Amino acid sequence: LFYLTAAIEAPVLLLVEKMLPIRKKKWLWRSVSIFNARIFFRLAGIRFVMDWPKKKPTEPVVYASTHPSLLDGFSTFMLFGPRVTHLTGPRRMFSYPFNFWFLKSGAIDVLRDANDERLYENGTSFGREDAIDALVSIVKSGENVFIFAEGHYERSHHLHYVHSGAARVAQKAHVPIMPVTLIGEEKCMRGMRLRPGTIRVVIG
Prior knowledge:
Elements lengths: L1 H16 L4 H23 L1 E6 L10 E4 L6 H9 L3 E5 L9 H7 L3 E2 L4 H6 L8 H13 L3 E5 L16 H9 L3 E7 L1 H4 E2 L2 E2 L2 E7 L1
Helix pairs in contact: 1-2, 2-3, 6-7
């Protein structure tokens, strides 16, 4: 369904974005992504319950989240809105239309480790230090940043090593980190399959 939708929408969006100023182009792709995700999850019978702290953030923050499903990017994009820039793995590791959509949505893709540097050395992905600097600039411009702090999808259902990127962005940009825990996604989203259920999103 996503591939079919993307094949239909992408040519239209490419035409529409030509009439928009540069700063609004990514908002177009993000807004359509959010709209699509809402439809897909509703059709799949997946319900999200947001558990916010009493005091919601009014200034930019760095969200640092668990990563229990391959589809976390779509769900968090939908739940946290278009004022969020995601950090992703190298764009070349994703197939079309995912990689194309990430690019158009303004995601920052990073070479996460030495293995990424070896496999994708001829790509356009950010190095780790450059990615940190790019995210700091985004936060300072007024947007939130969303980082899956383990850097990899949790196939074993256990937390991986938590990388320092979220802390470094928060320190450099002088903004707080808000930890996010996605509970139940591994039951509703197995690989690329969606199954009915409830996902609880706990924001610290």
